[in-house]
Structures are given as structure tokens and as C-alpha cells.
Amino acid sequence: MIALLIRDLRLAFRAGGGFGLGLGFFLILAVLVPLGVGPDQTTLGLIAPGILWIGALLACLLSLDRLFALDFEDGSLDLLATSPIPLEGVVAIKALAHWLTTCLPLALAAPVLGILLNLPGPAYGALILSLLVGTPALSIIGAFGAALTVGLKRGGLLLSLLVLPLYVPTLVFGAQTVTRAAQGLDLTTPLLLLGGLTAGSVALLPFAAAFALRINLR
Amino acid sequence: MASLWEYANPVKFMKVSGWLMPVTAVIAGAMIVVGLIWGFFFTPDDFRQGSTVKIIFLHVPSALMAINAWAMMFIASLIWLIRRHHVSALAAKAAGPIGATMTMIALFTGAVWGQPMWGTWWVWDPRLTSFLILFLFYIGYIALWSAIEDPDTAADLTSVLCLVGSVFAVLSRYAAIFWNQGLHQGASLSMAPGTRMDWSYKGPLYICMIGFVFLFLALVLAGTRTEIRNRRIKALMIRERATA
After folding, report:
1. Which of B4, B25, B57, B143 could pair covalently with B39 via S-S, beta carbons 3.0-4.6 A apart?
2. Chains A, B: CB contacts under 8 A, how many?
3. CA triplet A173, B144, A106: central angle to 5 degrees?
4. Interface touch B171/A197, C-beta < 8 Å
């Protein structure tokens, strides 16, 4: 399983692996929002928590269709399915690799973009913390969506249509955590709910995703 | 001893639904007509909301069916995954667009009522928001059905999506409550003691709700029958091509 993780990480970092695309997208979004909304600092400060979370969510979505598609095309997914590792474990490892290469950089880069969007001072810690706690759920939900659409020719758009509604609770609790921190309120409740959501998703969704993969490999 | 599962046999299902569908359709039509006429013309106006209140005779039943259609899809998906009855998968497929339409009717009638009463077509109230999200779930479900060619693969994958989606739809509902306290009033009908609504309203409302349940049944039966016939046509065409 560790070998598989290292393989996926290597593939992502090498040329053409798409590492950094999500980060670039996140940066562009943070630049486009003030251009669209206007440079007023108070307005930007008000919407910054939501925009940063939506940006992270979309950047995460961007790389999802590659999660299984390449391995499905060249047949290595069949090999993985017949290997001694359970397919649920393969799904979990692939989601972990996706999280390490896409979501972790996003969480670490988010405070820099927070400065661009005039995020209020007390919210920076909550921003990193909520992204670290919440984005594993995004990766594993995305892995489920990718497993559903892996056999389709034009799966990309359908993938977003399926996955984005599933992202709603994560987005709500994540953005609420940051907003509450920005307003100086207690953020334990949304943060705990966010953590619960992540824990539940990580525990249960690999089974659903592996089930969908088995159907697609039939 | 006849078992419920006998109706999972397509031939038996077609035979029974052949007479059940017109019956439910007639009951649905009669009850909705009676309920709406009673509600629209023989019920006094509300003393504050005037006649706009009467849209509840459409709004509440369609909202009821919007949620219950998903619940029915959930059960039908479970039956398909566990017992592999094709009729069940096709019934879930047929219920998707109907549920989406019901959700749209509920959202639309709500907007029409909200404009004069709340002074706005749309607010980001938890109930309204979760219905919009439910609508998105329906769209995803229908899109996945139409995207996959192989019928069994499509049935499997949409069933999994329906099960996972149900969990997340419920989560979204509570997330929306957490996110914003709303403008929408609480439940108007309740088993709890203490009358909130006069019988001159409750009567036609209940009739309309039962009518919508039958309407949904009739539509699902019609949709399922269409799907079964479609499969038969496909099978026949393949057989003909093989012999020709």
C-alpha cells in the first residue's frame, strides 16, 4: 500500500502529472474575485472566508477526473483490483495521494490568498485548521464521484454535477468555521461537525467507491 | 402463499400494473380536482394573507411528494442492490424525473406565494435551500442514468449514488439549518395536540395530499411500464437482427 502511495505521488509530481494546477487555479480565483466584486476592503473581508473555501473546493474538483481515469485506461486499475490489497484500500490510498498533492498545498497556500482578500486577522488559524480538517472529506467524496464516472467518455462535467451537491455540508461547516473566527465567535461547533463529517466520509465512502469501481471494471 | 416479490416478475408486474395504473390515475385526478375546487372556491380567505394562502393546496402536496419520491428511490435502489429485481431499478429510474418535477413545482409555487407575502421571490432560508439542493441531487441522479449505456451498470451505479446521496441530502438539510435560521414557517400539519389549522383548510389539503400520492403512483407505474416496454423492444430488435 505504501508502494502504491509512493507511485501515485511520483506520478503526480512528474511532468504532466498536474501537480500545482490546482494551486494555480486557486490563485487565479483569488485574483478574479476582487476584480469582479470591486476593491472595497470591507466587502472583500466579509466574503473572504466563503470565497477561500469555494476556491479550495473547486481546485480540489479540478484534478478529480484524473484520479482513476488514467489507471483505468492503461489497465493498471484491473491489476490493482486483482492484487492482494483490497480495492477499498486502493481507493483510500488514491484519495490520500490526491489529498497530499492537491488539498494539502491548498490549505498551506490559503493564508497567503487570505491576505489578498483582506481576511480578518483572527481567522487565519481557523482557515488553515478548517481546511486541514475538512479537505480529506472533499478528496474521499471526490474519489467516490470519480469511481462512479470512471467508465464514461465525457465524465468530467458529469463528475462535477454529481460531486458538488455532495460537497454542500463540508462547504457549509468549513466556511462557517472561518466566518465565525473572523467575527470573533466560538468556532468549536462547526469545526467538530466538520471533523465528524470527514471521519464519517473517510470511514464509509471507500466501500461505496470500491463497489462502484468493481461495477465499472466488470 | 403469494409473496410480495412475485410482482418483481415483469410479466406479472405488467399484468397487475395494467389495471392498477388507470385506477390510481382516476383516483388521483378525482381527488386533486375535488380538493382544489373545494380549496379554491369553497374555503374562506385567510384574514391576513387573503386568497394567496390557497397555493398551499399545491405547494404542500408537491413538497411532500418531492421528498417521498426520493425515499421511494432509496428503497427501490436498496431492493435492486440486494435482490436484483429489474422492475425495482426501473421504478427508481422512473421516479427520478417525477421527483425533480415535484421539487420544481414546490419551489415555483413557494416563490409565487413568497413574492406578495415575504416581499421576495427567493430567500436563502434553510427549507428553500435544502429543496434547491435536493433538486441538484435529482439532476445528478437523472444525468448519471442517461450517461451510461449498459442498463445494468447504470442501475448499479445510480443505486449507489442514490444511497450515498440520501445520506448527504439529510446532512445538507441539517447543515442548512445550522447555516441560517429561516423565514419559512414550521410544519403546518402535525400530530401534536392543539389545532393550528381550521378544518376548512385541512380538509382540502389532506385530499390534495392523498391525490398527489396517487398521482405519483400512477406516474411511476406509467414510467416503469414504459421502461419495461423499451427493454422488450430492444430485446426484440436484437433477436431480429440475429435471425436476419
Report:
1. B57
2. 73
3. 35
4. yes
As a whole number of angstroms, the distance between CA A82 and CA A179 comes to 46
The reported pTM is 0.88
| Alpha helical stretches, state H, chain B | 10-41, 56-83, 86-118, 126-147, 151-179, 199-243
CA distance B178 to B196: 26
CA distance B54 to B158: 37
C-alpha B10 chain-centroid distance = 23
Q: What is the pLDDT of residues B168-216, one digit of tens each?
A: 999 888 888 887 765 566 655 554 544 567 777 788 889 999 999 999 9
Q: How far apart are CA A49 and CA A182, in angstroms?
A: 8
- Of B133, B148, B178, which has the smallest distance from its Cβ to A165's Cβ? B133
DSSP characters for A66-127? HHHHHHHHTTHHHHHHHSSS-HHHHHHHHHHHHIIIIIHHHHHHHHHHHHHTT--TTHHHHH
| Domain ranges within chain A, ordered by starting residue | 2-9+20-217
Q: Which residues of B touch A144 (CB under 8 A)?
A: 164
Rounded to the nearest 5 percent, the helix, strand and coil shares of chain A are 85, 0, 15
| Cβ atoms of B100 and B70 closer than 8 Å | no
The answer to whether the beta carbons of residues A72 and A21 sit under 8 Å apart is: no
ipTM above 0.90, yes or no: no
Pair B126, B177: CB distance under 8 Å: yes
Question: Any chain B CB within 8 A of the CB of A164?
Answer: yes
Q: Are B60 and B188 in contact (CB under 8 A)?
A: yes
Chain centre distance of CA A73: 23
Q: What pLDDT is stored for residue B1 in this prediction? A: 46
For B144, the closest of A144, A148, A173 (CB atoms) is A148
Instruction: Say whether pLDDT at A189 is over 60.
Output: yes
B212 contact partners, CB below 8 Å, separation of at least 6? B28, B32, B61, B62, B64, B65, B102
